[in-house]
Design goal:
CATH topology: Alpha-Beta Plaits
Helix content: 40-55%
Radius of gyration: 15 Å
Largest sheet: 2 strands, antiparallel
Structural class: mainly alpha
Bound molecules: iron/sulfur cluster
Number of domains: 1
Number of strands: 2
CATH architecture: 2-Layer Sandwich
Strand content: under 5%
CATH class: Alpha Beta
Shape: elongated
Length: 86
């Protein structure tokens, strides 16, 4: 999160499906405990304040891994899900 870039438009706050972005000191701040790494806020921010390029790549990878884990859990493959979390 690049606080200097944030213009406090709150678009990310409205877009977040799990209310994981409080405004702190007039700037958006992602709460890592609640974030599910859907990346909607990254795509929504008009000034690209949320992540820098390298962080964005890492974020997308983490998002993909979490989605894969959820998909495996839904399919009932618990052994694979457990292995994926190691
Ligand atoms: S990645 Fe998704 S869940 Fe996390 S803060 Fe952004 S919009 Fe919310
Ligand atoms: S969308 Fe970007 S500029 Fe707007 S509040 Fe969120 S981080 Fe700040």
């Amino acid at each position: 999160m690049n606080k200097k870039k944030c213009i406090a438009c709150k678009k990310c706050v409205r877009k977040c499906p799990v209310d994981a972005i409080p405004m702190v000191g007039g700037k958006a701040l992602i709460d890592d405990n609640d974030c599910i790494y859907c990346a909607k806020c990254v795509r929504t921010c008009p000034v690209k304040a949320i992540l820098k390029d390298k962080e964005h790549i890492d974020f997308e990878i983490e998002s993909g891994v979490k989605k894969m884990r959820k998909s495996l859990a839904k399919s009932g493959n618990k052994k694979t899900e457990t292995d994926a979390q190691k």
